[in-house]
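User: I've been trying to design a sequence by hand for this structure and keep getting stuck. Would you show me what you'd pick, starting by listing the structure so we're on the same page?

Assistant: Good idea, let's start from the same input. This is the structure you sent:
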């Protein structure tokens, strides 16, 4: 099916194509496009791929705490995103490595751990466990350097 966009007073001259498909939950999705030479299946695939990009950016906003971007150039945006991803991965690694069988009062979610870590208000038992994990890792790295050379 095709259509023109706009109101009766201000309508586009070009006709647009309406493609209807269902998402993975069975909901009907309607997409208006000016791509006439592409199959409906290809348009549905393009839409789904673009939607995955939206999901990724939503995850970034929720987990990486990037309220604003410092720069507008492509390199500035990539740099800020990569730095935030590196910090996230390091914090997640530290959380997973330090998390052991804790007493009930010492269990933290990753979100709470991250918040308390950045505010420097982690419980003492977590600080001791983090110190143990980091010392163990540094010791293993030093031994690897010594015995590999």
């Amino acid at each position: 099916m095709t259509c023109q966009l706009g109101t009766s007073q201000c309508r586009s001259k070009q006709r647009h194509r309406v493609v209807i498909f269902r998402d993975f939950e069975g909901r009907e999705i309607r997409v208006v496009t000016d791509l006439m030479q592409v199959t409906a299946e290809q348009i549905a695939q393009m839409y789904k791929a673009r939607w995955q990009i939206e999901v990724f950016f939503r995850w970034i906003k929720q987990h990486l705490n990037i309220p604003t971007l410092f720069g507008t150039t492509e390199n500035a945006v990539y740099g800020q995103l990569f730095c935030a991803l590196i910090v996230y991965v390091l914090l997640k690694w530290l959380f997973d490595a330090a998390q052991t069988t804790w007493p009930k009062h010492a269990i933290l979610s990753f979100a709470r751990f991250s918040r308390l870590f950045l505010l420097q208000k982690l419980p003492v038992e977590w600080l001791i466990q983090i110190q143990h994990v980091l010392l163990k890792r540094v010791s293993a790295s030093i031994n690897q350097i010594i015995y590999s050379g």
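That's my pick for every position. To get oriented when you compare it with your attempt: Residues 74-98 form the longest helix (25 residues). Residues 2-63 form one domain.
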